[in-house]
């Protein structure tokens, strides 16, 4: 049986460490990092995430600015808010919750965020800095959290075969770039990939980020592999409630892998912890202060 990677506990430790560093900044440098989260519309799942983000931001001793706009908000209005947040010296990080309503072009909004405040790491400048590997950009939170779990479990990743299933700009592509930076041999698979089960079986590290519940089966996994399940799928139950489930068939995979992240309690909590980490990093860089240890 695989060891189950406790992302919830790891994230709690990371948040506690961030909280101690924030307290030092407040005491020694006289400023408090601030994170602005913008939510357009009333998607219930998005509301839960935004609420969790705000609560954990406050717990870490940072300032949380929440902006809720109606679902019918026009693009120029949202753009104007982003520009105000860019210009606000109390705001160190800006996150515009995705997905956005259909009348808004997400690329236009993401490109308008000041790259120095882009704590999601979605701005093309930050994506480019990650790809070229020579900059100090901000790294997308979900892949960063997944990498922290991998480094904690496996130490040196050099030379390992990594297969990333999913090619989104939010998870798949930045995950592949991070693993490449760790000297893994990286393959990015997607919906058009042929012989996907065989390819997955070559992976020492398998990252599933496709958004299809239970798609990765136990016999797709190399015995002893490390499996990172990024999927957050809400499945309706017969009684009307919902259950969260990943992209990996956990019951099967846990009998084959050496290490595996559960859903919930795996990568999800790391995403928010890394958002706070990026906010702390952005605050120190913007204000010309060294990041405390
Ligand atoms: N601009 C932007 N940045 C994001 O980072 C972003 C976004 N938009 N839109 C939505 C997705 C989703 N997301 C999650 C964050 C935390 C959990 C999380 O904490 N999950 C818990 C369970 C939470 C629950 O019970 O619903 C877990 O997996 O254990 C999940 C998903 C961030 N997202
Ligand atoms: Mg994805």
From TrEMBL:
Its job: Catalyzes the oxidation of 5,10-methylenetetrahydrofolate to 5,10-methenyltetrahydrofolate and then the hydrolysis of 5,10-methenyltetrahydrofolate to 10-formyltetrahydrofolate.
Q: Residue ranges of the Tetrahydrofolate dehydrogenase/cyclohydrolase NAD(P)-binding domain?
A: 140-286
Oligomeric form and interacting partners = Homodimer.
Q: Give the enzyme's EC designation.
A: 1.5.1.5, 3.5.4.9
Keywords in UniProt for this one? Amino-acid biosynthesis, Histidine biosynthesis, Hydrolase, Methionine biosynthesis, Multifunctional enzyme, NADP, One-carbon metabolism, Oxidoreductase, Purine biosynthesis
Q: Name the family the entry cites.
A: Belongs to the tetrahydrofolate dehydrogenase/cyclohydrolase family.
Instruction: Spell out the NCBIfam families in the cross-references.
Output: PRK10792.1, PRK14186.1, PRK14188.1
UniProt KW Protein transport keyword: no
User: In its UniProt entry, what is this protein called?
Assistant: Bifunctional protein FolD
Reaction catalysed by this enzyme: (6R)-5,10-methenyltetrahydrofolate + H2O = (6R)-10-formyltetrahydrofolate + H(+); (6R)-5,10-methylene-5,6,7,8-tetrahydrofolate + NADP(+) = (6R)-5,10-methenyltetrahydrofolate + NADPH
Q: What residues does NADP(+) bind to?
A: 166-168, 232
- Which Pfam families does the entry mention? THF_DHG_CYH, THF_DHG_CYH_C
Q: Which residues form the Tetrahydrofolate dehydrogenase/cyclohydrolase catalytic domain?
A: 5-120
> What terms describe the molecular function in GO for this protein?
methenyltetrahydrofolate cyclohydrolase activity; methylenetetrahydrofolate dehydrogenase (NADP+) activity
GO (cellular component) term, any one: cytosol
* GO BP terms: L-histidine biosynthetic process; methionine biosynthetic process; purine nucleotide biosynthetic process; tetrahydrofolate interconversion
Q: In which pathway does this enzyme or protein participate?
A: One-carbon metabolism; tetrahydrofolate interconversion
The record's annotation in SUPFAM superfamilies points to: Aminoacid dehydrogenase-like, N-terminal domain, NAD(P)-binding Rossmann-fold domains
């Amino acid at each position: 049986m695989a060891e189950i990677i406790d992302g919830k506990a790891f994230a709690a430790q990371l948040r506690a460490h961030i909280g101690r560093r924030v307290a030092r900044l407040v005491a020694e440098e006289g400023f408090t990092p601030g994170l602005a989260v913008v939510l357009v519309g009333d998607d219930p799942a998005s509301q839960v995430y935004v609420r969790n983000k705000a609560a954990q931001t406050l717990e870490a001793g940072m300032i949380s600015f929440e902006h809720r706009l109606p679902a019918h908000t026009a693009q120029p209005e949202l753009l104007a808010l982003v520009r105000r947040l860019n210009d606000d010296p109390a705001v160190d990080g800006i996150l515009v919750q995705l997905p956005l309503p259909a009348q808004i072009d997400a690329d236009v909004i993401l490109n308008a965020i000041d790259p120095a405040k882009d704590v999601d790491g979605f701005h093309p400048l930050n994506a480019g800095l990650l790809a070229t590997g020579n900059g100090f950009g901000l790294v997308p939170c979900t892949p960063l959290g997944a990498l922290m779990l991998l480094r904690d479990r496996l130490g040196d990743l050099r030379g390992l075969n990594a297969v990333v299933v999913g090619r989104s700009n939010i998870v798949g592509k930045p995950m592949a770039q991070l693993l490449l930076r760790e000297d893994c041999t990286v393959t990015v698979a997607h919906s058009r990939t042929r012989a996907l089960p065989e390819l997955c079986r070559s992976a020492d590290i398998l990252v599933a980020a496709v958004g299809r519940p239970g798609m990765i089966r136990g016999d797709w996994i190399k015995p002893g592999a490390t499996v990172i399940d990024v999927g957050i799928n809400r499945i309706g139950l017969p009684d009307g409630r919902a259950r969260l489930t990943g992209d990996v068939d956990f019951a099967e995979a846990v009998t084959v892998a050496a290490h595996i992240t559960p859903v919930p309690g795996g990568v999800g909590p790391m995403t928010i912890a890394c958002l706070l980490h990026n906010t702390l990093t952005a605050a120190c860089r913007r204000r010309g202060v060294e990041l405390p240890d």
